[in-house]
Amino acid sequence: MTLTTHAVIGATVASLFPEQPWLAITVAFASHFLLDALPHWDYSVQCLKKDVNDPTHEEFVVNPLSLIDLLKISIDFTCGIILALMLLPVSPISIGVWLILVGALMGMLPDFLQFIYFKFKPRWVKPFQRLHDFAHTRIRIKYQPVIGITSQVLLVLAAALVVYYS
To answer: Tell me: the pLDDT tens digits for 75-130?
Structure first.
């Protein structure tokens, strides 16, 4: 899944629990793993050196393509935050902007932890990386970004409708 999808879904599920912020944050974080269990499309990241035998041994390598990857990821991150704020109703009485932002960030956090693990290999991140690998589907929508993007847009719209009608 793209960071945009994770952010909007994380913010959406967090907004369902405005009176219980710790539950909102936990559910937003868990939504990442549930979404990654669905067959989906991901854009390519060229700065990852893959290990086909053990995905926990992938590495983030700095190369000329790293800047392009960083730009793609930054745009994806920014779109996720902006869409979460645009799609979800925010008012001082019901859901605070902070809950939407924290939900969006928590929805994306496992991918950030994955980057930290690939680059620095801290031991405290390894359990999250193992959970990420376990939860992630092996079925990918390859070479079909139109279908992959369309399915994620529909998922985001469905989540927004759930919030509007709840």
So the answer is: 999 999 999 988 877 655 556 789 999 999 999 999 999 989 888 889 999 999 99
Structure tokens at 73: 């990821």
Strands 48-49 and 59-60, bridge-based pairing: antiparallel
Q: For 115-137, what is each residue's pLDDT tens digit?
A: 898 888 899 999 999 999 899 98
pTM of the model: 0.88
Domain boundaries, the chain: 3-164
